[in-house]
Amino acid sequence: MNKRFWKDKTVLVTGYEGFLGSHLVRALISCGAKVVGFDKKVGRKETILSRDDYRRMIVMKGNVENYRLLKDLLFEHRIEIVFHLAAEAIVGKCQSNPRRTFSSNIKGTWNILEVCRHSDKISAVIIASSDKAYGEHKKLPYEEGAALVGRHPYDVSKSCADLLAHAYFHSYGLPVAITRCGNIYGPGDFNFSRIIPDALRCVRHKKTFLVRSDGRFVRDYVFVDDIVKGYMLLAENLKKLGLAGEAFNFSTNRPLSVLELLDNINKKSFRHGGFKYEILNKAKFEIKRQYLSSEKVRRRLGWRPLYSLDAGLERTLRWYLDSRKSL
To answer: Which residues on neighbouring strands pair with residue 141, listed in sequence order?
Structure first.
């Protein structure tokens, strides 16, 4: 990352109190950026942000579905760079409430793009998409040119958000780029429907971990610090390298099955007692094999994941075992 690039830049992060958003905010603050955090929840306990972090940023409470509020915020604070992370992201909740999912993830994205279109201060807009935007393909790993064919509410909402970003680039020249990531993990993830935080909580509390699938589902797992650096690197070079209108996959290029991941976690946590798991084989609406190629971002931006799975799990395990928060 280029710290000089971020010095005194005014940056909007939507969904700033979430897992990835909070890590991104801390990195931006450390680089001297003026961060405006926008979230529908403000002051939640389940975040890694400290009191000092909050003192060093501007906090705005609101919903990305509120166009007028976003417009006032963007112009009042003279925002230069936008990271749009706010979304309904829990797949199970999205499945049970598609209306909320589509409103937040699709309407919220076009609101962000539309307010940015009318600002002459904006130099970069980064839209957080997902590997789920691709839907299911036989050819693996997924490359950026693969069709966006999501079938279920969360997947479809991300496919649509992707297409909206492309429309605003091609129609209006908006400096926007899209990120599609594998499964992000690391300290401070309080979403225990995800496999790694749930497994590590089981280690901490000596409980049996319940595997929803048959254990053979294959995914990418990427440490959160590597994703944060990728996001910032993309924003820094969007104009310089002419990357607007493009999508970029971020992955380790080393997919593994759920059982392989659990074996790794067990080895890491062995000295703490490890954990047992039970396979339920009840997973629904999930793709069995889904992982990404990050060759494009490695070639175009020089991005590389710095954390191996071993190193990332070590840091993550230590945080969950040491955390004083209620887990």
So the answer is: none
Looking at the structure of the chain, the number of domains it has is: 1
Please check whether residue 262 lies inside any domain of the structure: no
Active site (annotated) includes residue 154:
yes
In a domain, 265, yes or no: no
Is 195 contained in some domain?
Answer: no
Give pLDDT tens digits for 224-251: 999 999 999 999 999 999 999 999 999 9
DSSP for residue 50:
-
CB neighbours of residue 29 within 10 Å: 18
Range of the domain at 96: 3-186+222-252+290-306
Instruction: Choose, from 154, 277, 291, 320, the residue flagged as catalytic.
Output: 154
For the full predicted model, state whether its pTM sits above 0.90. yes
Distance, CA of 183 to CA of 132 (rounded, Å): 10
- Identify whether 180 is part of a domain: yes
